[in-house]
Amino acid sequence: MNARFGWKGGVPGNVLITGARVVDPRQKLDQQLDVLVTEGVITEVGPVGTITTGDSTTTVNADNGILMPAFTDPHIHLRTPGQEHKETIATGTKAAAAGGYCLVIAMPNTSPVIDGPDLLRGILARASETAVIPMAQTGAITRGLAGTELTEMATMMETGAAGFTDDGIAVRDAGVLRRALRYQAVAGGVIALHEEDSALSMGAPLNEGVISARLGLRGQPGSAESTMIARDCALARMEEAVIHIQHVSTYESVEVIRREKALGTRVTAEASPHHLLLTEEACSTLDSRAKMNPPLRTEMDRNAVIAGLIDGTLDCVATDHAPHSDDEKSQPFEDAPFGTTGLETSFAVLYDELVTPGLISLPLLVERMTSGCIPFGFEPPTVAVGQPANLALFDTRAEWIAGDGGWVSMSSNSCFAGRTMSGRISLTLAGGVIVHTAEATQ
Question: Which GO MF term does the entry hold, naming one (predicted)?
Fold first, then answer.
């Protein structure tokens, strides 16, 4: 077992992927090429028709495909331990493979909370037996996510923690967070922050605005997020610490992060597909699949998040994959839990809604979808000779309806369910192992 992730592994593949449009901005690739994988390693990248292979190599004709480095997700929930009726390590990582991912980083807000080295060691051991792709695990910042007593961050880093977060809850006490940032200098590891002033958000089920007023429901003001980001960036700057801001959703938040980066604050940030593509209007029918935290915001906020992703204020895409059972999500809107799944639809929906209309270039989207691992100390995948084959092939002609025929994930609470997608991941390799093929989702 790798000290920093768990994965059951598999037999390294021998595959020739021929005729695909190969897109890898880190290698300055955007052209039709052949790529040869031998025993799980990329051994040749060359013009179409120039690579010869032996009988043991499987050839994949990808004339209609886009071949990219497989994606990495810094923010998912695998509900293990304690909530396996929603998702397991096996089903969640299989869903990730179906979405083109080669590495996911799981949150610690489980039952019990992963707030000590023994629990962390146990999860990584379980992942080494069942994870379809490599899975890294964060540890909690505070014991039990209670926001008061710091965890054994240094010991958890030695055990293999990817970083630290109290995700789902903000570290409300600035003094506690400051101590954590100071501890980081000894322990190492990025501190990832869910930014929400609960005195302002008050657990409200949607954004404070036109829709909440029309429905007669309490709303969360955007300032509940942006003011906490400003506070935490100031603390990080003061302590020369490293922080990562999770699921940014407002115009003001993007502006704060942009300013802090200009000041030299060591901060990275992520955007989620639902905040890039949807607005509070999706809540107008009280569909609980559109209930997430932070909530869907206004069109101005959505455009600001897109702009931040384009200019690098926001460094990466993170799904915040948050599975819930049908029974839980079928409750009234106010009572249903926050969260949407996202691993299976992320690239396809962003390709349709951002790349196809020309709002963002394909190479830039690929860069942002492969960069989520960087703040947590992992090297991003790349299409280069000598590198492990972490590859995702996207079939641009494989039209499908999201959720039609079921999901790979155990849960169906996708805010993109029912949407027609113009393409689909048809092949994923992680660590040189074929972990997903088109047949797996047909």
Answer: metal ion binding
State the CB neighbour count (10 A cutoff) for residue 141.
29
d(CA 184, CA 405) in angstroms, rounded, equals 46
State how far Cα 189 lies from the chain centre.
Answer: 18
Domain locations along the chain? 15-67+386-441, 70-376
What is the distance in angstroms between the CA of the first residue and the CA of the last residue of the chain? 32
Per-residue pLDDT of the chain (442 residues; tens, 9 = 90+): 357 999 999 999 899 999 999 999 999 999 999 999 999 999 999 999 999 998 889 999 999 899 999 999 999 999 999 999 999 999 999 999 999 999 999 999 999 999 999 999 999 999 999 999 999 999 999 999 999 999 999 999 999 999 999 999 999 999 999 999 999 999 999 999 999 999 999 999 999 999 999 999 999 999 999 999 999 999 999 999 999 999 999 999 999 999 999 999 999 999 999 999 999 999 999 999 999 999 999 999 999 999 999 999 999 999 999 999 999 999 999 999 999 999 999 999 999 999 999 999 999 999 999 999 999 999 999 999 999 999 999 999 999 999 999 999 999 999 999 999 999 999 999 999 999 998 755 5
What is the sign of the dihedral through the CA atoms of 64, 69, 74 and 78?
positive
Is 320 catalytic? The answer is yes
The top-level CATH class assigned to 15-67+386-441 is: mainly beta
Given a contact cutoff of 8 angstroms between Cβ atoms, the answer to whether 96 and 124 are in contact is: no
Residues 6+ positions from 2 with CB-CB distance below 8 Å? 134, 160
HSE, CB side, 13 Å, CA atoms: give it for residue 440. Answer: 21
Residue with tokens 């460094």: 315
φ and ψ of 191, to 5 deg: -105, 115
User: Which CATH number applies to 70-376: 3.20.20.70, 3.20.20.140, 1.20.1250.20, 3.40.350.10?
Assistant: 3.20.20.140
Instruction: Give one word for 145, left, alpha or beta, with left for phi > 0 and alpha for psi -120 to 50.
Output: left
Residues 57 and 101: beta-carbon distance below 8 Å: no
Element (DSSP H or E) covering residue 436: strand 433-437
User: Three-state secondary structure along 70-81?
Assistant: CEEEEEECCCCC
Kindly state the helix (H) or strand (E) to which residue 349 belongs, with its residue range: helix 346-350
